[in-house]
Amino acid sequence: MGKETAQKINKPRAIRRLVIWYKRNSAVTSIVDTAASSAATASNVAGNMVSGAGSVVTTASNVAGNVAGNVVSSAESVVNTASSVVSNASSIAKNTLQPLVFDPLKRLQNNDNILDRVEESQSKRIWIAVDGMGGDYAPGPILEGCLEAISRFPINIKFVGKIEKVRDTAEKIGLTELLENEINNNRLELIDSGEPIGMNEEATAVRKRKNASINVAMDLVRNNKAEAIYSAGNSGAMMASAIFRIGRLKGIDRPAIGALFPTRDQTRPVLVLDVGANTDCKPSYLHQFALLGNIYAKDVLQVKKPRIGLLNIGEEECKGNDLSVKTFELLSAEKSFDFGGNCEGRDVLSGGFDVVVCDGFTGNILLKFLESVGGVLLDILRSELPRGRRGKVGSAFLKSNLRRIKKRLDHAEHGGALLLGVNGICVIGHGSSKSLSVVSALRLAHSAVNHGVMDNLNQLQKLQVLNS
Hints:
Blueprint: H1 2-9, H2 13-64, H3 66-87, H4 89-97, E1 126-131, H5 140-152, E2 155-161, H6 163-172, H7 176-184, E3 188-192, H8 205-208, H9 213-222, E4 228-231, H10 235-245, E5 256-261, E6 270-273, H11 283-299, E7 307-311, H12 322-333, E8 338-343, E9 355-357, H13 360-384, H14 388-409, H15 411-414, E10 416-420, E11 425-429, H16 435-450, H17 453-457, H18 464-467
Parallel strand pairs: 1-2, 1-4, 2-3, 4-11, 6-9, 7-8, 7-9
Antiparallel strand pairs: 5-6, 5-10, 10-11
Helix pairs in contact: 2-3, 2-4, 5-16, 9-10, 11-12, 13-14
């Protein structure tokens, strides 16, 4: 008994609030339902009155002729009007009282699709090259995501892959008709290529296999036939192909992969770079990453004055390894952006920084860790919900909200990461990308093109620090 009492006393505050909310809200819900039921009953009564009046009037019409017929018409008109007014009572009552029934977690549901409603409706359609053979499940989910993105964003797709295999896959998953429609509408073009660079192959394989899908797609960007490229294949091969075919920006030694992480403010994510392109870095590389991230945050994230942070084990400037200490000195001396100091691991998702720089080894671990958080968090919450009737009630109310929480932490919602530092817009997708991830990545590519990221990145070469 003592143990059960202690468990009740220590019941999580959120569950107690939920029970209190349910009790209060159930009364309002009951009022709404009662009002609607009463209105419906009144409507039925009015209908019976109409029917009875119609019978009486019909009899009168047979007896009195045309004169009674006029009376009939007037009576029916009046009764029908009464019926219409009463039948609307249900919807009026519900519309009046329904706002009182609110969701206590509604703040977690706002702006879920805020990135979907940027200037897409007013901008011109742009061509994006897609490596259709890259990824663990390609080409099916890649093609499905492309077709969905074409209908949602002002983009056209040059889908690169083995055409015969792409058409066979489209037939298997029931996309043949949609695929042909988009081809006929000149919004999608199939471009033939060879086999992709495998996930287990060395990045240097791009130099030997010129007909690989990633190389063919990259050539479209180099020849100005596409304004951006997306691939969910071998990220090392993507980076190597970009360097060999479109080149690095002048003054940039190493490109970096920048990924968007969610924060407490869901309308303001944080850009973390590098998350995997360079496992071993020099202080000058991290300095360049900060410059690249600053421009991206201004152009795409629309942050007027991005706050830059250096991922470290402490806030003090003397903390960290030799790389961190020397990088801190470089970033502190830089006048072209706002350096906010060291960023501890707990501060990455706090919203206190707009850009966080680190070496690729640390960044990739951070990225993979975050990918697991959504699922683990849901499992913990499920296990903590009480059993029995109260648990079922709580689960019913929290189900949709928990899904939204997971959605905010789901890497598929962010879709891809930008390869910054090369002379073109390159979006790298997760190897296990499904159609949702592809749509999100193509949205990111469109946003980067639409905001003129490359124009501002090319201005970096004018900085004295990159020419020294």
